[in-house]
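[09:14] KT: can someone run the structure on this one? pasting the chain below
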Amino acid sequence: MKKMILAMLLLLSIFTYAQEETDSSANTPTVTGGDESQGIEGAAVIGAVTVDGKNYQQIGLRLDVPLGKLGFGLDVQLLIDEEGEIREEDWDEFEDYLDKIYYVRWAKKGDPFYIRLGGLDYSYLGYNIIVDGYSNMIEYPHYKRLGMEMSFEAEKFGGELLINNYKELITDKPGLLIGTRAFYKVWGELAIGATFASDLNEYNGLRDNDDDGYPNEIDRYPEDGDYVTEYDYYLDQSGSTAFADSAVVYGIIDGLKKDDLENFKDRTSSLSIWGLDIGYPIYKGEFVGIDIYGQMAQIDGYGWGFSAPAFRIKSGPFVFRAEYRHTDGEFLFGYFNPTYEMERAFYDANTGTFMTKQDLLDYIPALDGYFVGVHFDGWGIFRLTANYQDMRSGDGEDIEAIKSLTGEFAINENLVPKLAAAKAYYMQNNVEDFKEWKTPSTVLGYVLGYNIAEGTAIMFDYRYTFQDMDGDNVIKGKNETIKTISITTKVMF
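[09:31] RB: done, structure tokens below
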């Protein structure tokens, strides 16, 4: 109860401070750039949410506060279980308090200097051959990461920096995803760039709630560091090996012991990629801009790939990209993509072992193909983003293919009475075909909101991910579909 009172006071103090800042600056001229907003945007959230398979009532406050070029977002919430107790796991460690910061930023990407700390929704480096739309929020709010992206640009040179999650530095196995790019304008607007990105420990992508070195997928007691298998539990309770062995003989438990399982406590796995690019704006018109570019990258210990010729067209709300792509095998374009945190390290039910995305490179042949992407703000009516890649190898009936498809479609909520939000999205990366629309690499969902009164809306947020538990390469049954549903009442101010 004491924690609940303190947390509620924290919520109240944040809201009061934000309101005072707005009131005190209401009549003060402020110089800002671009389309920086001057008003606080936020919501008090009350509703139901499911975390780790358990239902909670959620009481929260979310704020987006711009102060000139400075802006920050807060996400402070209480999760209350059926007994009226606050979920203590959200408040018992220092990093839990870091989680309350959704982001802090200065300016926006493309400005002379930009930096953002916290949640990263869509991050890229250069022309995207290595880091392409990376997000550290793909599993939010179940898993919260504290990342950073930064960029700067002077007259002749500039640079970019990406970090996925500072919290990985304070684990037993320090490691994180870090990427950087620098470029220099060698002649006029002709720029040459160099990119480097490295995941210092892919195994940090595994979930291990009790931090005993055994990932949740093989730990029968993921919240208790004293036990891993049923055999461990029976042995500890009885203090007798004979008793535990008898339970195995009579079929009460299986005979699996923790010594038979993989332990990742002191294991690490790293991967690094470097790349080069060159780009030139061949046309800069009042309404249209066209860039032509080329790029290549090498994955250390594996293969390389390049895209050229490639071009990008910008015209008001319309952006189009097209690239010819080639690899010599063991290479993936946009390796650090929007779903990377889910692919980074995972349990493979086909082999009963844990794998990393790096392990999949051994099976990728030399490929040729293309990529096209489009983003369009449709006259204030809708927003559409779609990307498609088709890479192939071989001839005739021996063709192997690797394809990716991502898309998002949203309707302008101001056009429909009572509509507060309407958005659908779909992602499927690096598959042979699209015969199965549900795969372990698929993320899909939709968001709908309804205004029940002025400034108050009910929000329905549905997200689906999938896992192949039995290794038959077909997603079926409730246990292979992970559905995250959030129903909240949102009060805007």
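[09:33] KT: thanks! The first helix runs from residue 2 to 24.
[09:34] RB: yep, looked fine to me
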